[in-house]
What does this fold into?
Amino acid sequence: MKRNDTERTISFSPPDMSELEERQVVDALRSGWITTGPRVKKLEHLLAQFVGVNDGMEDGNIEKVAADPSLVCLNSATASEEMIFRVLGVGPGDEVIVPAYTYTSSAAAAIHVGAKVVFIDSQPESLEMDYEKMREAITPRTKAIVPVDLGGVPCDYDKIYEVVTDPEIRKMFLPLEADESDDDLTKLGSRIQKKLGRVAIVADGAHALGASRFVTRSSADPEGENDRKEKKMVGSLADFTSFSFHAVKNFTTAEGGAASWSLPFVVNRILTKEEIEQGEVSNAEIYHWFQLLSLHGQSKDALAKTQLGAWEYDIIAPLYKCNMTDIMGGIGLAQLERYPGLLARRRKIIAKYDAACDELGVEHIVHFTNDYTSSGHLYITRITGCDDTQRRSIITKMAERGVATNVHYKPLPMMTGYKRIGWNIEDFPNAYQLFSNEITLPLHTKLSDEDVDYVINVFLETVREVRGY
It folds into this structure.
């Protein structure tokens, strides 16, 4: 029997689990591998292939793994971004540029490594940071820029690379210097920075697994010397990218995340001592350091120690603990198998939302254009002429009718922890304006067509009621 409208309850973002995920979890439990093991390793190779970085496989065959992938699975996007900074050699005395309009993870990871965060205001009427202000904020201390692919829409990487490869900007860059007394991680960071010879692009792709953009500039060709546009997946657009697999994301492992890297100078083989001394960087070395950083600095993970007589290991430094478990990896393998269908379903829901918002004259995030394809993670709307009091009224009235909504995001300079550091929202008027009338509608693959219609009807009726349309 069909429920009445008043009986319908719409959650904001429940995880989409199926029997496939259940079987993977049960199989993992029965296998004896519940920490980092074969499922995580397989997921790393397949995700690397999916996002377009080195997958380490022969002819794309997962049964023929020849090398380490350019992607590592960890326990969160925050840990992934922090470990990226550590591999990159970012630390005390350095500056990292971050948009003010984002979630705390984008900035917190830089703070964790001791760097100073420099916030940038948004563009007027855009979720992306102001790239001219970004340019002006670069100093000799700037080591990284963190573009945020908010809602699943890739940033304009052509513009970002145009800035960091500008000869005047590049001239300011001061790479990390390391000497013989420094540890091997510091030396690796120094080599990477010197090979880049510019500010690194460390994308926050937490929302954007499966998104892509046509670019003339990317990590593979930052100078933009090729005239033709090339389609690149988020994960291969920037030098480094962090992903989130949290429970509310399109693709989830319950908790979890990944770090990928796309560095054209990386050598896909073991380097000689002489090559290392000459400043070369290998993919195996980067991957190995992510493993060390995520597992206490232990030279072998549990899987490696199962080899006959391979019990002994070393602790090369007192490092961190942020590895992904095989239970999570199993969920991820099932999700990846289902992911094309999940993305397609999101696209259909977005099309219905777009039509309704356009009819009412409500501004909304644009997920699909000739230049990019979004992952469709968030459906962000802005109620023109609406103030914060009216926005809160709309959210409350929709909740009373069973529709959960959200706000993405309250700018970081408004948050207590960041105000204590010294940031003031008055310095970021565009970010505040984006926040002040924003409402995010539920967008997930557990929504039926009837649910979507109900959300639309409740939204349109509530906005008309509160705004007097």
